[in-house]
Design a protein that fits this description.
Length: about 120
Amino acid sequence: QVQLVESGGALVQAGGSLRLSCAASGSIVSINAMGWYRQVPGKQRELVATITSGGRTNYADSVKGRFTISRDNAKNTVYLQMNSLKAEDTAVYYCAVRLALRGEYEYWGQGTQVTVSS
C-alpha cells in the first residue's frame, strides 16, 4: 500500500502564489509517474500536471506558463508551484501516483482545498 499526504492548500487572492506538496510513503520500490488533478463540485476531475520519473512533464492548457510541477525522487515527493492564480483555479487538488509503467494512477491523496478570491 502507498499513502499520499498533501499539504499547501489555502485561501489566496487572485494573482498570488501557492505551493502544494505531496509525499508518498509505504511499499514503494519506485514511482513512475506523479501528478496533480483538481475537481470542483459538479464537475469531473481534471488533469492539472504530471511528471514522469525521468522528469518529463505535461500540463493542462489552462495552467501552462503559470504552474510548475516538480518532484524529488529521493523523498518520493511531488510539488506544484502555482503562480498568477485565478478564481477559476479554485478547486480541491488531488495528488496521484502511478507505480506501473503505464495505465491508470493507482493511488490518490485525500485532496487539499485551494481557494482563489477575486
